[in-house]
Amino acid sequence: MKKAQFFYKNPAAPKPNKPNHIGVAAIIRNEDYLLLERRTDSNRWSLVGGGLQKTESLEDCLKREVLEETGVEITTFQMFDIFSDPSRIVAYPDGNVLRIVTVAYIVNVPNNISLVCSEESLQLKFVLISDLSLYDIVETHSHIIGSYLERNPCLQKPI
Asked: Residue 156's CB: how many other CB atoms inside 10 A?
């Protein structure tokens, strides 16, 4: 079965064949850990997130996606940054190729949350920030995580 492919600053990326896609990504942090999900469409790791629906705000999209993909209701979050480089491309198995614009949010969660995987996730896991380099993170999210770590020098960066 064909898997989703992710591209960032890659001249070999396919050209988009659909309109630009707007989505959100949640940088869910608990002390020295970040939450990653292993995606069903690629068997690779990413932040929790997804696409904006026509009838919702970005904040409502964030709340919905986190709830759908983790079972956790969030109430406090902060916008981190907008990632709009035109080289952020995703090629899906159905043939759709999208340029994606992602609004990333920082979300803090308590220690005692119970995570529930959605049909989009194979696994949810809090990963020690110093171990992030051990995970095959999709290109369209690895630079978001890198940017977050660069702006927070007190956190240990992955190698």
From this structure: 14
Instruction: Check whether 63 has a pLDDT greater than 70.
Output: yes
Which ranges of the chain does DSSP label H, i.e. alpha helix?
58-70, 139-150
Give the Cβ contact number of residue 157 at 10 Å: 14
Q: What is the DSSP letter of 137?
A: B
Tokens encoding 17: 């064949």
Whether residue 51 is predicted with pLDDT greater than 90 in this model: the reply is yes
How far apart (Å, rounded) are the C-alpha atoms in residues 46 and 41? Answer: 11
Contacts of 9 by beta carbon, 8 Å cutoff, 6+ apart: 85, 87
How many whole angstroms separate alpha carbon 107 and alpha carbon 80?
10
